[in-house]
Amino acid sequence: MRLQYMKELTAIYEQGNFSKAAKSLFITQPALSRHIADMEKQLGITLLERDKHSVSFTEAGLKVYKSFRRILQIYEHMQEELSSYQSDIAGTLRLGMLYYTIRQDFGPVLSRLTADYPHIEIKQISCQPQDVYHALETDRIDIGVLGSADYPDSSFLKMQEFSSSTLDIMMSSHHPLAKKASLTFKDIHDEIFIQLSDDPYSNCSYNEALKKCGFECIKTILTPNIDTVPFVLQNTNAIYLKASQFIVSGYENVLVTRPLDEKNLLVHKAYVYREDNQNPLIPLFLEYAAKFNTDL
Q: Is the pTM of this model over 0.85?
């Protein structure tokens, strides 16, 4: 049984519902639900009784929770005892962070890493995707976040995927497709797609995900950056493809978002670093990322 799963069940008991538990653990609610289902399958019992409004523990679920809580207390005590052996690890780790997803991308990892290794200095550099690539290219950061894709001239980079997302279509509330609850490739085949002229890396990631599913954006228009997308949507019949996790707020009265309901259509985010970077904190960070990022 994974230690992270034990923490998740414990969080549900302590927080009282899935939504608060997921938020406290920096994971999505669907990911939390999948992990609970995995636990129930592994243990061969029902842990929780849930409906749309509440969640309660079964008798067996309460026994499992109490056992998990004891195991976690023992584990936490052991970590405290071992911290003296870890305190000699030090150095600087430069992270290129997308300013609008810092918490999702780095929150779970950094909180644990810096707690276990207090002498590590974290330098946070706020970036857009195109800045991340160039900062890696010029060795100004050790690790950044980009959409997972086979970028041109990127043979010097290595990637470790940590998050996946479905895709949505954003459009004007007056667009004919706005009447539909969800969309398919057939619906958007003849549409004009907005792409960002300052972010070829997100464009590449989305286009690669579409191509794997046999779809290609035939008609495209460019807009300078993400801030200009709402204006273009309101003044054209174009549509904008985005990761479901990415929220454009402040335009709820004039723009709508519809899920692109296509099987196996996912975009992935990855921690990206130079293959020739010898900073010993990079593999340590990636090890923690594999342990404490559970959104896959």
A: no
The predicted-structure confidence for 103-119, as pLDDT tens digits, reads as follows 888 988 998 899 888 88
Beta bridge pairs of residue 193:
220, 239
Which H or E element spans position 221?
Answer: strand 219-223
**Cα–Cα distance between 44 and 49 in angstroms, integer?**
15
Provide the token pair at 172: 């004007």
Give the whole-angstrom CA distance, residue 24 versus residue 12.
10
Helix (H, G, I), strand (E, B), or coil: what is residue 237? coil
Q: 249 burial class (0-12, 13-18, 19+ CB within 10 angstroms)? A: exposed
Beta-carbon-side half-sphere exposure of residue 24 (alpha carbons within 13 Å): 16
Nearest Cα neighbor of 132 from 228, 258, 272 is 272
Instruction: Round to whole Å and give the CA distance between 168 and 201.
Output: 18
Q: What is the pLDDT of residues 164-195, one digit of tens each?
A: 999 999 999 999 999 999 999 999 999 999 99
| Helix (H) / strand (E) containing 42 | helix 29-43
Residue with tokens 């706005």: 178
